[in-house]
Specification:
Helix content is about 0%, strand content about 50%. It is mainly β. β5 and β6 (about 50-55) form a beta hairpin.
Length: about 120
């Protein structure tokens, strides 16, 4: 249902863009999980692609966007920090708005590793 791409190893301050393609039109989001930590919300976008929500830790640095042609979501990550290192998961929900709670998401991608080296 969801196909992610774009993770990798970067240096502090670098940028990276993650992509997620869905098989249908959904509101979508990104979550991340660092080693030994709980999975946490990062960003979300509504099914139209006009309304967004962000975790405070990434606000101003990350930008989520969505193209309904091809059902492609992306997240531009700028000014990356070591604490951004995690496995990033794409998720899709049948809710219409940008959704923060992971329990509202029905479909999940396999995850893509982002490592920020200092």
């Amino acid at each position: 249902q969801l196909e992610e791409s774009g993770g990798g190893l970067v240096q502090v301050g670098d940028s990276l863009r993650l992509f997620c393609r869905a098989s249908g039109g959904y509101a979508m989001g990104w979550f991340r999980q660092a080693p030994g930590e709980e999975r946490e919300f990062v960003a979300a976008i509504d099914w139209i692609g006009s309304s967004t929500a962000y975790a405070d830790s990434v606000k101003g640095r990350f930008t989520i966007s969505k193209s309904n042609a091809g059902n492609l979501m992306s997240m531009q990550m700028n000014s990356l920090k070591p604490e951004d290192t995690a496995v990033y998961y794409c998720a899709a929900t049948t809710k219409s708005g940008p959704t923060v709670s992971e329990h509202e998401y029905k479909f999940w991608g396999q995850g893509t590793q982002v490592t920020v080296s200092s």
